[in-house]
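Table 4 source record.
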Amino acid sequence: MQQTSPLRRAARAMAPLAWTGPAIVLIGVVVVWPVIEMIRSSFLKISRFGVVQGSNGAANYAKLFDEPDFPGVMARSVIWVVAVVAITILLSLALAQLFNQRFPGRRLARWAMIAPWAASVLMTAIIFKWMLDPEVGLLNMVRRDLGLIDALGGADADQLGQAATAMPWLIAVAVFVSLPFTTYALLAGLSTIPAEVYEAAKTDGASRLRTYWSITLPLLRPALTVATLINVMNVFNNFPIIWVMTHGQPGYSTATSTIFMFILKGSDIGESAAMSVVNFGMVIVLVAIFLKVSKWKNEVS
């Protein structure tokens, strides 16, 4: 029996790299290298013009943690992610269940649901900012027609200029933008559930609520896990909505860590890089907590 030469065995072992190599290079260039540069930059002293002035040790992190607004920004980032993702998931579960039923105009309703997803997030934020304009916004026009001007703060009330009202509006816009993808992800999960399972539950006399809780939700967990995980990362890193509508103002009352990082870049790039590293770590922690709570390993096994 002829033995295979070492060179041929090595070539055969390296053959899969022809397929996986481009993906590995792409991940290295687009993901790994920027992360390494981000971490490296967080330990450098960099002028506002981008000139590296030498090592700065952990001074950037010390300066960041000493910022008086830092604790509030971090707490607000967590509230922002939890509120937007939780509301989005709850509404998407209801919408997916609705769109999974047969009713007149269902196809048209499904197409209409894509609109907020197909539109640019930046454009959506601009439209909502215009709607909430205290002088010419559509909201004030409707309030005026309904006679609610005085009850809702008067004609000059700026919904985005007050901390108490700005954040709820930002959350509402983020939910509006996130609903289409989440709804369709859950709708895809619902379409994979066999009809025989529901027929068996009906034969056993299970109520609709019991069927949904004991059959639909458990079988929907893989789609629900993926949709929630993607939403957590997207919402945490969301920039256009908050920046376009409020710039993180008034003060830093609507600024999340991503917005705070961008603001810091204008005065201290090294501190901004340190904030980027904190952001990166926070995303990993949030994802790890979610995967732990959701018991995703049970789904894999």
